[in-house]
Design brief:
This protein is α/β, with parallel strands linked by helices and 277 residues long. It contains eleven helices and ten strands. The chain has an eight-stranded parallel β-barrel, surrounded by five helices. The longest helix has 21 residues, at 256-276. It is globular, with a radius of gyration of 18 Å.
Length: 277
């Protein structure tokens, strides 16, 4: 299985140039580039051509641009579409296969049907744009009560309604656990609709309380990663890639290279356990 690195894991103690250096050194295959902060920061002193050249001359490759936030139930749809167009252009230039889109997080109570109607409409518009450049759209549900799409089954229903090969899901183990997504539903899902798999773990807080900062190294929390990884593979997850994504504040206090090394070590241990159990 290929190993990918999500830049949230060193959000406050590194930058894109350093992440690439350390990920290359420690044998990662792919990287998810953060477009909200790390890519703009990089482009202040570098060019897209330099980034293209780096990927052409090193083992590590970009798999996704992460992320467009927040894409649904917005009044400024045209602005969202323009932001997405820019991300697709950048993904195409760099050779990244996916653009990740994240649902609206809000205190406002929205009906599930209104959320679905908006999300389906926006994802279809995204797909029209992305398909023209051979890029795919990956919807990441977020396991917080305030997120408008916060369970696997809700997200799956939306992309199943869209029903386009260019639109799929980011399956994040933490987000699946955090809002108690339905495991029996997962077992019946089509794994080909999962484009990216995020691996992470968490402390043992009640459902609905968990937030990103509660994530811990894979295998050092309470998520049954063996069961999740085995099931996702059994239902047909084809990408054969796991991307480690942690937001742990304590990890931001560590040297970035040590975080990247440790993230790889714990991820590989979790993958090995799922294979041999």
């Amino acid at each position: 299985m290929k190993l990918c690195y999500n830049q949230a894991t060193t959000l406050e103690n590194s930058n894109l140039a350093k992440d690439l250096e350390y990920c290359e050194k420690h044998g990662y295959d792919y990287i998810e580039i953060r477009t909200m902060d790390k890519l703009p920061e990089y482009l202040r002193d570098h060019s897209m051509e330099e980034l293209q050249d780096y990927f052409q001359n090193h083992h590590i490759k970009p798999i996704a641009l992460n992320a467009l936030v927040y894409f649904n139930n917005r009044e400024d749809e045209e602005q969202v579409i323009e932001e997405f167009k820019t991300m697709v252009d950048n993904a195409n230039e760099l050779g990244a296969a996916y653009v990740v889109v994240v649902p609206l997080v809000t205190d406002q109570a929205l009906l599930k049907e209104d959320i679905k109607v908006s999300a389906v409409s926006m994802l279809n518009q995204f797909a029209d744009i992305a398909e023209a450049q051979d890029v795919k759209v990956a919807l990441e549900f977020v396991g917080h009560p305030e997120c408008t799409i916060n369970t696997f089954e809700q997200a799956y229903d939306i992309i199943d309604t869209v029903d386009r090969k260019s639109v799929g899901l980011v399956f994040d183990c933490f987000h699946f656990h955090a809002m108690n997504s339905d495991f029996e539903f997962l077992k019946k899902a089509d794994g080909e609709k999962i484009f990216i798999l995020h691996i992470d773990d968490t402390e043992d807080y009640p459902i609905g309380v968990l937030r990103d900062e509660h994530r811990v190294w894979p295998g050092e929390g309470v998520i049954d990663l063996e069961k999740l990884l085995q099931t996702v593979k059994e239902i047909g997850y084809k990408e054969d890639l796991v991307s480690v994504e942690l937001f742990r504040p304590e990890y931001y206090q560590m040297p970035a290279e040590e975080v990247i090394r440790k993230a790889k070590e714990t991820t590989l241990e979790s993958i090995a356990a799922s294979i041999h159990s």
